[in-house]
């Protein structure tokens, strides 16, 4: 924008002449002072969002220099030349809050300040957006932030002095365009074909039916009219446009010494340039449409705007000599020029929209040379500000197609279904274009086939005359009876074959589409698919692969879709851009509902949304998405983009999309313009309040349950309301599907990294790691919780001999499934059975007889029945036996044992007590030796026979610490003070009692607690702990932590498992008896954090290879974790792949009295109140430790 020029070799000399009688000089640098001479200072921050403070004036300090950029009379943007960012009121409206610095944007009212000069010399700065004045708290102390305050010009804390700096600022004229196409919002396509549906031309029907891609359009076609150009291309990388090989496209330019890289790929994944992860902040100066450096950013330090130059040769098939030839790019980040045989063909932007060019006049028979110049950043990058790694290059397929001169340019398939769905009418709109030199006649023949290949209908429509260079539209239709309907549950696809015939009836071109008949209706503020009320249970998904970046291979696409299906997700939001076109064939085939989202997000500068000069760019992205994907039955919603605010360009997008297609349109940033209401990350209370608003449209959570790290708490509570109590809710998509973490070139695949790991600036650290699956698609306990909550069958025990099943599918009868049940007594199966389910249509309920009561014979045992509903037959996404729904019921109310300890008398021997050095007390007999440090109150020895249980004298000790993304905590030094220590031995000498009264001090928080040990002659120890929380309590857990002998690394427990679980994420973890090793209790969080919790544990054993060790039995239940890591070290090590660096040999055992829920507060609400640890309360628990011999 405006550059600052230093006069004296980097020294800033200030002139302390008051400028009260002068107008503001926009070529002048200023200091802004309070009346007592303190300076406004951004404290050398170059980060957007940083606050601005009052500081002691320091001569020559760049962070205290400001420039006034004129907008209109008396209205200015106040910019720091150091950070190249402007003072912004933060969008706070009429509220007294601190201002911040943000990427400068002269069109942003939040950065516009009306400056009024008063006669006595001071200035008042008034926000155009809010009407509030720039000021500071009354005290005006050093280090206080600058605020916007309710206007009162008489108050000194709103009065400012301007002091000239001896620095000249040279204003550059404000640009509205550039000589570069890639810095001009008006230019996003040169010589590019209009958008169209995805289809491949074939020579004839016979060739097409024999093709691998016939009916499976994600597979690689062998069409004689198709030539794939993927492979190794010659490549040159330059860090900025000035360094690129400008003439590389010439046919005589030697590229023999250039590197080769695979296409498709992202060049950063191959070691060229820097991957940059940022959520909102643009990775360049926010000055649209220009790409400029920003101080401290990667673009300023190393890579102003990298350019990739690609060269490739291809041989044109001989039989294409009389054809029209097109080159097709499925996706390029972010702008590209194309040359063929040294001649410039065109230009394209829109990184995730396809681009097609007619190259008929540029190619020749035999070998041809292809040259592509790709710019990392362009004005289009302002609309590609999604929360993701910013990667570059040709990241999707490149291929050629050949068509006859009179070609089938586009197809649009729609249908009409009768009210009873017993008749379907297929409508086919064909666009026929004549590229030839003579007028032609043509006709279109449509064939409709079922999934077996049987032809059901054929109809033919003539085009009439097609003039040279013109396009005509042919509308054809045909109907069938009793159509099979497409839904996510029953994705039945018909094949629509289209043949183009010349005036003599000869086939000149053939193509095919997979099509599903389905009906979308909004009724009573809900969405109905094929007449059935449908809930959308989904997740957001970015295109990302740890090794290949955005060049996602088909195998990974299929893996994602199979996981969606197998874990009960039925909806995908293509956040925040159209996916690779192959994905939509997969969505259709496997059955997923799709919210197809335009490649449009200007989160870092939402003013573009209401800037008419950007309208065409906005509309182009939405229209190309719709034109490409319009024939896919899986697409239920169009989404106009993401997090871009509202404005005229959204309205224009809506109108353009609606003119093409009638599917519901979504856009969270401007609900009044959309067909459905949408929100992000509401609390349950807020969600309910919004659901009850009297708005005549459905309500959708486009993002919720932020799954960052160890997360997805209280998901059940959201869906209990959505599914059973809401007025107009239709579901939601969790944020998000997969951790956006990537490998570094040359490192092993198991090492994945996030923002900041590459020296990238700006970056948002690990905020990209929010996946229900890890980067390498490992299933997490979060996803297993989702599977349980999202399941489509609910269970209710009527009595101890029958269970009621509620079929919440929209298309499946329960006859598709088997029911398996198992009855467990204290975790051991004593009865199980499996059988087919009876007729039960969608929405119906059936009671199933399960004779259980006769087995419930032991009043001292716990009985649980587990139900599993399984697929009866194989399907495309899972094998027979795959479990689709589960439930567990407790069949008896077994009273928990009381906190008062029951004596362990069996086999007791007398204990002897010894005090040593006035510090230690030991209780000893042949069975055991148990030792305490009387100076600390700690249990420091627990020996059974020859086996020492404790590691390095680390017995139970208060632990408060955990740190997860949802509840980030830095370690605070903790001291535990012994208040009182008492011990006594019973008169019969068969037991002893030790009482320790302690107080833990964590920062300013005190936690008084008492631990009472009752020791028995057989070596058993009963431990009772009580904790008190005060009014200032804000810690995440109350626990005792112990380090155990490294040999005790095998564990079995009776409690919830086998997966990791927490109090607000345990629906998928059933009570049972489970076994593991300590090593296998770890999880694979990309950002290392607290992990491995297990809830509601009755007992736990830890043993060595010989089966010797200890058993810990709860009086009631406890939660626990057993790992080779401490929570503190997990957080400090940062990367999950570095756990071996902190692995301990010993077992770190945490026994939780209570732990705060995990919630979703990394971006959203924290735990529900019932999962919080209450202030001013007492918590207690008890357990017994005894030897396993």
From TrEMBL:
<dbReference type="InterPro" id="IPR035992">
    <property type="entry name" value="Ricin_B-like_lectins"/>
</dbReference>
<dbReference type="InterPro" id="IPR000772">
    <property type="entry name" value="Ricin_B_lectin"/>
</dbReference>
<dbReference type="InterPro" id="IPR006103">
    <property type="entry name" value="Glyco_hydro_2_cat"/>
</dbReference>
<protein>
    <recommendedName>
        <fullName>Beta-galactosidase</fullName>
        <ecNumber>3.2.1.23</ecNumber>
    </recommendedName>
</protein>
<dbReference type="InterPro" id="IPR011013">
    <property type="entry name" value="Gal_mutarotase_sf_dom"/>
</dbReference>
<dbReference type="Pfam" id="PF02836">
    <property type="entry name" value="Glyco_hydro_2_C"/>
</dbReference>
<dbReference type="Pfam" id="PF02929">
    <property type="entry name" value="Bgal_small_N"/>
</dbReference>
<dbReference type="InterPro" id="IPR036156">
    <property type="entry name" value="Beta-gal/glucu_dom_sf"/>
</dbReference>
<dbReference type="Pfam" id="PF00703">
    <property type="entry name" value="Glyco_hydro_2"/>
</dbReference>
<dbReference type="InterPro" id="IPR023232">
    <property type="entry name" value="Glyco_hydro_2_AS"/>
</dbReference>
<dbReference type="Pfam" id="PF14200">
    <property type="entry name" value="RicinB_lectin_2"/>
</dbReference>
<keyword id="KW-0326">Glycosidase</keyword>
<dbReference type="InterPro" id="IPR023230">
    <property type="entry name" value="Glyco_hydro_2_CS"/>
</dbReference>
<dbReference type="InterPro" id="IPR050347">
    <property type="entry name" value="Bact_Beta-galactosidase"/>
</dbReference>
<comment type="subunit">
    <text>Monomer.</text>
</comment>
<dbReference type="GO" id="GO:0030246">
    <property type="term" value="F:carbohydrate binding"/>
</dbReference>
<comment type="similarity">
    <text>Belongs to the glycosyl hydrolase 2 family.</text>
</comment>
<dbReference type="InterPro" id="IPR004199">
    <property type="entry name" value="B-gal_small/dom_5"/>
</dbReference>
<dbReference type="InterPro" id="IPR006102">
    <property type="entry name" value="Ig-like_GH2"/>
</dbReference>
<dbReference type="InterPro" id="IPR017853">
    <property type="entry name" value="GH"/>
</dbReference>
<keyword id="KW-0106">Calcium</keyword>
<dbReference type="Pfam" id="PF02837">
    <property type="entry name" value="Glyco_hydro_2_N"/>
</dbReference>
<keyword id="KW-0732">Signal</keyword>
<dbReference type="InterPro" id="IPR014718">
    <property type="entry name" value="GH-type_carb-bd"/>
</dbReference>
<dbReference type="GO" id="GO:0004565">
    <property type="term" value="F:beta-galactosidase activity"/>
</dbReference>
<dbReference type="Pfam" id="PF16353">
    <property type="entry name" value="LacZ_4"/>
</dbReference>
<dbReference type="InterPro" id="IPR006101">
    <property type="entry name" value="Glyco_hydro_2"/>
</dbReference>
<dbReference type="InterPro" id="IPR013783">
    <property type="entry name" value="Ig-like_fold"/>
</dbReference>
<dbReference type="GO" id="GO:0009341">
    <property type="term" value="C:beta-galactosidase complex"/>
</dbReference>
<feature type="signal peptide">
    <location>
        <begin position="1"/>
        <end position="21"/>
    </location>
</feature>
<dbReference type="InterPro" id="IPR032312">
    <property type="entry name" value="LacZ_4"/>
</dbReference>
<dbReference type="GO" id="GO:0005990">
    <property type="term" value="P:lactose catabolic process"/>
</dbReference>
<keyword id="KW-0378">Hydrolase</keyword>
<dbReference type="InterPro" id="IPR008979">
    <property type="entry name" value="Galactose-bd-like_sf"/>
</dbReference>
<feature type="domain" description="Beta galactosidase small chain/">
    <location>
        <begin position="922"/>
        <end position="1186"/>
    </location>
</feature>
<dbReference type="InterPro" id="IPR006104">
    <property type="entry name" value="Glyco_hydro_2_N"/>
</dbReference>
């Amino acid at each position: 924008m405006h550059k600052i020029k230093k006069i004296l070799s980097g020294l800033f000399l200030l002139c302390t002449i008051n400028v009260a009688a002068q107008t503001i000089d926009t070529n002048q640098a200023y200091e802004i002072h309070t009346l007592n001479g303190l300076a406004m200072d951004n404290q050398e921050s170059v980060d957007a969002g940083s606050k601005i403070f009052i500081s002691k004036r320091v001569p020559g300090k760049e962070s205290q220099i400001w420039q006034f950029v004129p907008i209109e009379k008396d209205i200015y943007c106040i910019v720091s030349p150091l950070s190249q960012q402007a003072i912004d009121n933060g969008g706070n409206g009429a509220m007294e809050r601190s201002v911040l610095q943000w990427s400068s944007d002269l069109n942003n009212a939040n950065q516009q300040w009306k400056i009024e000069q008063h006669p006595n010399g001071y200035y008042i700065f008034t926000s155009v957006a809010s009407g509030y004045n720039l000021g500071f708290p009354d005290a005006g102390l050093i280090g206080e932030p600058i605020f916007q305050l309710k206007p009162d010009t008489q108050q000194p804390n709103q009065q400012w002095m301007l002091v000239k700096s001896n620095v000249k600022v040279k204003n550059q004229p404000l640009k509205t365009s550039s000589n570069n196409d890639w810095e001009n919002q008006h230019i996003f396509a040169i010589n590019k074909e209009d958008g169209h549906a995805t289809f491949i031309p074939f020579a004839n029907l016979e060739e097409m039916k024999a093709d691998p891609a016939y009916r499976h359009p994600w597979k690689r076609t062998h069409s004689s009219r198709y030539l794939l150009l993927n492979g190794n291309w010659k490549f040159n990388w330059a860090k900025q446009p000035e360094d690129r090989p400008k003439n590389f496209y010439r046919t005589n330019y030697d590229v023999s010494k250039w590197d080769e890289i695979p296409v498709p790929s992202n060049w950063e994944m191959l070691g060229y340039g820097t991957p940059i992860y940022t959520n909102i902040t643009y990775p360049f100066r926010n000055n649209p449409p220009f790409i400029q450096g920003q101080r401290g950013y990667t673009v300023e330090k190393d890579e102003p705007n990298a350019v990739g130059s690609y060269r490739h040769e291809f041989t044109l098939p001989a039989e294409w000599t009389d054809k029209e030839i097109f080159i097709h790019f499925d996706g390029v980040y972010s702008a590209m020029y194309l040359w063929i045989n040294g001649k410039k063909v065109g230009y394209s932007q829109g990184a995730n929209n396809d681009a097609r060019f007619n190259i008929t006049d540029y190619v020749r028979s035999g070998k041809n040379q292809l040259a592509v110049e790709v710019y990392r950043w362009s004005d289009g990058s302002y609309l590609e500000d999604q929360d993701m790694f910013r990667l570059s290059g040709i990241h999707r397929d490149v291929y050629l197609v050949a068509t006859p001169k009179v070609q089938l340019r586009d197809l649009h398939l729609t249908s009409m279904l009768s009210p009873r769905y017993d008749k379907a009418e297929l409508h086919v709109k064909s666009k026929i274009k004549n590229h030839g030199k003579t007028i032609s006649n043509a006709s279109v023949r449509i064939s409709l086939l079922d999934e077996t290949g049987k032809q059901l209908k054929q109809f033919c429509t003539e085009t009439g005359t097609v003039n040279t260079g013109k396009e005509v539209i042919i509308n054809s239709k045909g109907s069938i009876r009793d159509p099979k309907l497409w839904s996510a549950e029953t994705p039945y696809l018909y094949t629509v074959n289209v043949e183009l015939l010349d005036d003599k009836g000869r086939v000149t071109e053939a193509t095919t589409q997979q099509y599903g008949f389905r009906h979308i209706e909004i009724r009573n503020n809900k969405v109905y698919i094929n007449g059935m009320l449908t809930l959308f249970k989904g997740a957001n998904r970015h295109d990302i692969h740890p090794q290949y970046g955005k060049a996602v291979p088909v195998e990974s696409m299929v893996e994602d879709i199979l996981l969606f299906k197998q874990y009960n997700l039925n909806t995908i939001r293509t956040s925040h851009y159209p996916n690779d076109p192959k994905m939509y064939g997969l969505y259709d085939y496997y059955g997923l509902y799709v919210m197809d989202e335009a490649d449009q997000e200007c989160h870092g500068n939402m003013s573009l949304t209401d800037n008419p000069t950007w309208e065409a760019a906005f509309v182009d992205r939405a229209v190309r998405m719709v034109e490409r994907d319009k024939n896919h039955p899986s697409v239920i919603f169009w989404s106009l983009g993401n997090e871009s605010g509202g404005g005229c360009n959204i309205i224009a997008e809506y109108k353009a999309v609606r003119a093409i297609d009638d599917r519901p349109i979504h856009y969270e940033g401007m609900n009044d313009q959309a067909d459905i209401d949408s929100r992000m990350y509401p609390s349950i209370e807020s969600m309910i309040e919004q659901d009850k608003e009297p708005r005549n449209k459905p309500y959708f959570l486009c993002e919720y349950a932020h799954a960052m790290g160890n997360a997805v708490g209280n998901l059940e509570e959201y869906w209990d309301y959505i599914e059973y109590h809401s007025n107009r809710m239709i579901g939601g998509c969790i944020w998000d599907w997969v951790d956006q973490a990537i490998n570094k070139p040359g490192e092993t695949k198991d090492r994945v990294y996030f923002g900041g790991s590459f020296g990238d600036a700006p970056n948002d650290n690990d905020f990209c790691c929010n996946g229900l699956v890890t980067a390498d698609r490992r299933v997490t306990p979060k996803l297993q919780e989702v599977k349980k909550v999202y399941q489509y069958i609910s269970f209710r025990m009527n009595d101890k001999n029958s269970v009621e099943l509620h079929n919440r599918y929209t298309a499946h009868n329960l006859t598709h499934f088997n029911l398996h049940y198992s009855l467990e007594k204290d975790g051991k199966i004593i009865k199980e059975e499996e059988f087919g389910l009876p007729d039960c249509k969608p929405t119906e309920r059936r009671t199933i007889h399960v004779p259980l009561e006769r087995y419930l014979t032991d009043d001292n045992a716990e009985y649980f029945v587990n139900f599993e509903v399984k697929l009866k037959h194989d399907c495309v996404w899972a094998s027979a036996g795959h479990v689709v729904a589960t439930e567990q019921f407790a069949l008896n109310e077994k009273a928990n044992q009381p906190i008062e300890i029951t004596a362990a008398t069996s086999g007791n021997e007398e204990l002897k007590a010894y005090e040593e050095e006035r510090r230690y007390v030991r209780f000893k007999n042949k069975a055991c030796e148990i030792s305490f440090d009387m100076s600390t109150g700690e249990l420091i020895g627990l020996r059974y026979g020859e086996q020492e249980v404790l590691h390095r004298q680390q017995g139970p000790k208060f632990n408060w610490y955990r740190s997860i993304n949802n509840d980030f905590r830095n370690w605070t030094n903790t001291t535990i003070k012994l208040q009182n220590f008492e011990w006594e031995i019973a008169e019969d000498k068969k037991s002893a009692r030790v009482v320790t009264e302690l107080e833990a001090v964590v920062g300013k928080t005190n936690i008084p607690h008492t631990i009472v040990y009752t020791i028995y002659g057989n070596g058993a120890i009963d431990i009772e702990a009580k904790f008190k929380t005060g009014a200032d309590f804000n810690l995440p857990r109350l626990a005792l932590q112990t380090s155990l002998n490294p040999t005790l690394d095998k564990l079995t427990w009776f409690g919830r498992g086998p997966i990791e679980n927490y109090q607000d994420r345990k629906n998928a973890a059933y009570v049972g008896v489970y076994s593991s090793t300590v090593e296998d209790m770890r999880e694979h969080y990309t950002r290392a954090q607290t992990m491995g919790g297990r809830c509601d544990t009755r007992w736990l054993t830890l043993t060595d290879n010989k089966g010797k060790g200890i058993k810990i039995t709860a009086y009631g239940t406890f939660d626990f974790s057993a790992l080779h890591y401490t929570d503190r070290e997990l957080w400090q090590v940062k990367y999950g792949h570095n756990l071996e660096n902190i692995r301990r040999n010993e077992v770190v055992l945490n026994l939780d009295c209570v732990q705060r829920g995990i919630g979703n507060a990394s971006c959203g609400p924290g735990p529900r109140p019932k999962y919080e640890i209450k202030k001013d309360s007492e918590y207690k628990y008890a357990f017994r430790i005894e030897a396993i011999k």
